[in-house]
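Two records follow; treat each independently.
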Amino acid sequence: MGRIFNDMDNQIFSKLAPELSGNTMSKAGHNYPFILRPLSHKIAEDGEDFRNRMNKLDIEEMEYLFQLAMEGKEDIRSLEEDDVDTFLELVEEKLSTEKLKELKAKLGMA
């Protein structure tokens, strides 16, 4: 089951996966339910590619993804293991250690 991406979702998805030209639909014809899961499992070639793509995000975009994760609207735990680590590291680097602690607590990773 997918969701309809809003403008910010589309902006981030397009920045992370420009080769898809804004297409947020899976090959099965459903809207992606998350921004990061298809990036982790289908688009990024490996953990390094995922990290390079994520490093393109600015603080506002990282804050937005952080908030989605805190609301359960972005499934961080379903990413590839290296990609989970990358996301958590970027939360700490771009946002704060306190937000990293909040997210880990929310995800049961504390």
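The next record belongs to a different protein.
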Amino acid sequence: MFTKFFATTIALLSLTLTTTGFAQTQTTEKAAPKAAPMATKKADTKKSEKTPKASKAAKAEVGVVSLNKATAKELESLPGVGPAIAERIVAYRTEQGKFSEISELMEVKGIGEKKLAQLRPHLTLD
């Protein structure tokens, strides 16, 4: 009887602490895992919603970037281009010389037709 009462009390206390934000770690009681994922899920949802909006906003402000003159950092400002692809573009340009057509960008690993179509409005050869 005492064990059942104790387990119920711990579960309620854990639920209360979890929903009010005071819980730091999950307990091993059976009722606690039900409450903890809800609190974790809400926090994860807020983080995941903010991250894409921030990066889309930053990428939306991109004007036109010169494919033959841009640094890797400048290329990273393009939609869908991260540090790895930006470095590959610069390395390709160093090894092969200047791009004569924007479509040559498809020779760079990680850039296909879809990504090229996404990038084309933001690129120039100047």
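Discussion point: The chain has a mean pLDDT of 73. How would you locate this feature using only the token line?
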